[in-house]
Predict the 3D structure of the following.
Amino acid sequence: FSSIKILTDEGASVLVPVGEVHTVEEVAGLAPVIAQGESPVLEVPCPGGDPDDVLTLLLLGAHRSVELLAVTITPGSQEQVAMVRWILRQLGLSRVRLGAQDWPTNAAKKCMQGKFYDSFGRLPVGEPECEAANQVLHECCDEGTTLLTGAPLHNLGAALRRQGFRLGRWVAQGGFAGEGVVPRHLQMEKFAGRATCATWNFNGNIEAAKAALESPAIGRKVLVSKNVCHRVVYDSALHAAFGMAARQSEVRAKREGRRSVALRLLHSCMDE
């Protein structure tokens, strides 16, 4: 399994995988960097104005070598759950576990904003049924599982409090690498000279972030830092590359049905 966050390493496009960092020649080709035998669980935040969390889910769905076990959501509104359930059904992944923070406590919250989300349907009821996220994480995670988080760590923090929780690898969007870690000539202008910087995901639940970073129950921790994420740009060239990948996958639709659907959804939702 490889993470979906695209980095810049002196001009090259790379991915942060479960292990080392590898250069990827064709981003839209989703060249696999796989740790064989590991399966991912995806933790996504409340969709707001940023599309990256839905794109991450679609990229995982498009990856030939990923066996997605579960998707957990924070805070877990009814509309969020209905949209994620719809996407999973479109990808033929209705057997994937679906969890939401303290479900159904936050079901009535209104947190999805922006025209981007009009590109996706809603499935208010049906499979997969929504469950409490900490239970889903506890039952799906083990020493052979990778958890990818792109949200405040409410659900992971709650899962860590359950007896017997174990996780092989945690890949987190969070933290900051700056002065003293990143050479000055590679620092973004807005972060130049800064050694520390608050980040939304970790600061959204500081207690849970500290618990996760210190936990011996997690075998390996890989952080995709704020200054890395802020370098990522979805531009016309990347959009064209995804379009080409979607068309190529459609030709092989019988063999790559899920991949074809995922790439088509990704390209169409970013088409406006």
Observations:
- The chain is about 30% helix and 20% strand.
- The first strand starts at residue 2 and ends at 9.
- The CA atoms of residues 67 and 207 lie 30 Å apart.
